[in-house]
Amino acid sequence: MMRELANLWTGVRAAWRREVFAFFATPLAYVFIAIFLIVLGVFTWDLSRFFDTGAADLGPFFYWHPWLYLLFMPALAMRLWSDETSAGTSELLLALPVSLPGLVIGKLLAAWTVAAAALILTFPWWITANILGPADNAAIALSYFVSLIMAGAYLGVGACISALTRSPVLAFVCGVIIAFLLTAAGWPLVTGAIADVFGTAAGDSIATFSFLTHFETAQRGVLELRGLAFYLGFIALCIVLNTIFVSHRRSGVQ
Amino acid sequence: MLDLESLAKSFRGTAAVSGISFSLGQGEVLGFLGQNGAGKSTTMRMIAGVLEPDAGDARILGHSIISARRDAQKLIGYLPEGAPLYADMTPIGFLRFLADTHGLSGPDRRSAIDRVIADARIASVTHQPISTLSKGYKRRVGLAGAILHDPPVLLLDEPTDGLDPVQKRAVRALIARMAPEKAILISTHTLEEVPAMCSRVIVVDRGMVVADSTPDDLAASQPGGLEQAFIQLASDMSDNSA
Fold first, then answer.
1. Which residues of B102-131 are buried (b: 16+ CB within 10 A; e: fewer)?
2. How far apart are the first and last CA of chain B?
3. Nearest chain B Cα to A12, which residue?
4. Does A87 contact B78 at a Cβ distance shorter than 8 Å?
């Protein structure tokens, strides 16, 4: 057991170091963070009229997180495994005496690190809310925490899809489609339409599988363990599927 | 050190390797010859644990690549065909990554990296991005990665492909230097290299072993030497299957 854990840790550490280096050695991470901050800023400021309300509330800022993540997280994860396939380095990885789940977790954590860096750099919004008035900092901290966990779930989807193709573009497009479905399933417009056709119970059931639904609870300042378990369980599922997709390459079937 | 037991692999119903068996001991350098598509790279991938065999097994110092894959892989140094590398890394970064995956740390890690940089003669390019290196340097970086953890069994798929004559000679000298301590399996198309590098030759065709000999004996079997013997074996197999 201890030997397995040590092997897992070796894989996690090696893959995390390699991927974080790959993100920051090229303009990829910097461009990602810059565009994310600009788009989030424009949406919060312009579309949500943050300053017009004059309230010390970051609700308009967090509102956009799931909708931006569904585009940005697949972009961050699209090359995690597809590049390995196209460059032939997956052969190198599969020949190494490391735990495959460790490599999968390490790569996911590396992309998550970049997402966390982007989220940390939104701190001026938090400061602004406190300047506007007495803000509920505990609720804001909770929203940040759940937003980061939710980002991991979106990255899990992107990483999984990336393991199925050698094309980062295809991985991105498929990742966005799946992420959209997982987000929109909790959108009132969609849940309402489902409820109209199949009944309220069906609409509510579909909504429980949405990233949006569980994040809305956190935005109200409530830490719902069910929501946290949903995100963590979803990430674990993605890690398992990702490991299966990569280990399937050993069968030789492309 | 390396035992192959009826190793077999098919892709979409087509047999790529059909029951290859042989053993390789310490001090042996085996030239693994065959035409394109003969099953050389598939066999090496199965030994390295990259591909799962449909049947048979490969044992590295007694560790099965199927039931004890990680233990077996620790004992293998593998240079895949084309020496795939991370283009965005530098050779030193790549070697540090591999050292991490082998659990090397501290002084062991430093000395292992210094040793392979010297052995593969890549000291002048260690901090250059791999994407900017020549094909020859890339292959040597791949070779440095394969020998980083000083494995007792080496699998080298076309190690001298793309190297200039001086680099080829350096790689041959490195293999000769390592040979007494290790079992080395080399896949190559370059027949003239075989007598210079290998103490034994196996020729495969359509996934089967068709000759297992020393380079001198195989060369002596035909008036035209090793090349003629190789062509003869390949055409014999074509005739038999026709």
1. bbbeeeebeebbeebbebbbbeebbeeebe
2. 37
3. B101
4. no
Count of domains in chain A?
Answer: 1
Which chain B residue has its CA at the smallest distance from A18's CA?
Answer: B97
Instruction: Give the count of beta carbons closer than 10 Å to the beta carbon of residue B177.
Output: 10
Strands B76-79 and B208-213: unpaired
E-assigned strand segments in chain A: none
Q: Do A94 and B49 touch (CB under 8 A)?
A: yes
Q: How far is B217 from chain A (nearest CA, A)?
A: 34
Range of the domain at A64: 2-251
What pLDDT shows up at residue A254?
Answer: 59
* Residue in B50, B87, B103 nearest the CB of A91: B50
pLDDT of residue B238: 58
Residue contacts between A and B (CB atoms, under 8 Å): 77
- The per-residue DSSP string of A166-232 comes to S-HHHHHHHHHHHHHHHHHTTSHHHHHHHHHHH-HHHHHHHHTT-HHHHHHHHHTT---HHHHHHHH
- Chain A residues with CB inside 8 Å of B87's CB? 87
Domains of chain B, earliest start first: 2-241 (3.40.50.300)
Q: Which residues pair with B122 in a beta bridge?
A: none
pLDDT at residue A77, as a whole number: 95
In the predicted model, residues of chain A with pLDDT beneath 70 are: 54, 253-254
Residues of A in contact with B84 (CB under 8 A): 87-89, 91-92
Q: Which two tokens stand for residue A240?
A: 């398992």
Q: B133 to each of A229, B79, B150, how far by Cα in Å?
A: 48, 17, 24
Instruction: State the Cα–Cα distance between residues A207 and A224, nearest whole angstrom.
Output: 15
Structure tokens at A78: 């699209």
Walking along chain B (242 residues) 10 residues at a time, the average pLDDT comes out as 93 89 93 88 94 94 93 95 90 95 91 94 93 90 94 93 84 89 90 86 90 85 78 67 52
From the centroid of its chain, how far is CA A87? 25
Report CB contact under 8 Å: B89, A88. Answer: no
Instruction: Sort strands B29-33 and B183-187 into parallel, antiparallel or unpaired.
Output: parallel
Residue B50 C-alpha, separation from nearest chain A C-alpha, in angstroms: 5
Cβ atoms of A190 and A184 closer than 8 Å: yes
Q: Closest CB to A94: pick one of B50, B74, B103.
A: B50
ipTM at complex level: 0.89
